[in-house]
Amino acid sequence: MNNPPQPGPVLNDVSAHCRALWQPPGMAVGLCTPAGLIWSRCVGERRLGSGLPIDEHTVFALASGTKTFAAASIAHLIGANQIDWDTRAIDIDPSFDAGDTRVTELLTLRDLACHRVGWTSSEGRHRGAASTRADLVRRLRHHGFRHPFRQNFAYCTDGFSVLGHLVDIATGMSWEDYAQTNLLAPLGMNRTSFSVVDAESSGNAAQPHLQLLDGERVATPWYYEDHVATPAGGANSCLADLSKWLGAWLANTHAATPWPVNQTAIMQTPQIADAGPFADKELSCAVGEDLTDEAYALGWYTHRYRGERIFHHTGSIRGFRSMIALLPERQLGFIALVNADDIYLPRALFQATLDGLQGADPLRWTARFHELERAWHATNAGRYRRDSDTRLATNGECLSKVAGAQQTAGTELIGSYDDDGRFGRVTISRSDQGLMFRAGGLQYRIVATGNDRFVCEQPCGPLVIDQGQLQVDRDNARRIAGFAYQNATFKRTA
Length: 494
Known about the structure:
Residues 390-407 have low confidence and may be disordered. 29% of the residues lie in helices and 28% in strands. By secondary structure, it is of the alpha+beta class. A hairpin with a 5-residue loop joins strand 4 (209-211) and strand 5. It is built from 15 helices and 23 strands.
């Protein structure tokens, strides 16, 4: 009988191959058991050109892997006999309004934790306009729905922000403090935080990087709306700490797990199939017929690969990508942290490691993941440009700035507007940076591209990021009456 592949050598070979193919600034990859981290591969730099190495304690953004913490916080509250998964949101917050009378009446914690509500998402749009988590939740009534309630899977990170809001109310603590006290502290996760400021001041933090159209990687400031959306994607952590987190899930004993042990199986029970018009297909986008039973549980994706049950979550915020996974039959946990916007790299690392552990060709699907990565960058890298550039990249097409049009139309645009909903009141005014669009904490520079069209740019260190087009609406007298932006219609109020 052949000896089964050993995890360490498999991970070592896979990491070397994927690093050579993707060439990220840096990455940290590891395998753990309930006893802790058993193998790791840390390569590259925290910031390109810095010479500062990455190690097991280097902090990266975990991004949407935070949803596993949000689900576990609900499980912990259930253990305190305060709620259950079928507690309705309005039973905790009577003012809650989902934007539909029936949905408001029926919506439960379970619905929020498995992406079956049907909302459109505020992420990358108006989330930063909210002043507090409660304010973000209040704006949900204006979001609209992509599908009927409980009829489809449609990933919407806002559901987990609502879970955090409900924990705020139910406990009288912020979700961050509740999770820190009841999840992180018992596990000794001392380098994990829920704050960008705390992560950056940790003394050993990776820097996010974005890729331009020409392939250049540029370090940018760390950015996340952790004043409103931490439970959805605001955890920052490292290999050493995440091995403790995954180890608690694998061990699932009263001594090792901060939440009631019976809740682990509940959180890992599929709630809705990852199928239909809004399916994510995170791995089956590249992997063939051996991958089956894709679904979302409570804070975890789940599927089978050659019959083996897998639980995982990927994460993505500006300049960071991550993946955590549980292989319970092997009592192994997998962690991949990358300080670049390479969305498919953590998935390729995981899938190659799993194939290697199963005795198959570990590089079976890697080329396909890399093809998807190249296509993703070709589509998305056009949003980024150096702030010193004189040309604007929009959807891959370069448009010259039109100084005269910017001056004339810019003067007309100055004023106050309201969309009666998601963004609320916004202003357009002049500053030393040019024409500025302001909505709560969001600040975008407006650049004219001609024909009453503008692009909203967000400064990001040495770069600016295209946040979408703004189209002016004029009345019969050719005066600016409002504008359309991010699927919202704004009317002038002053």
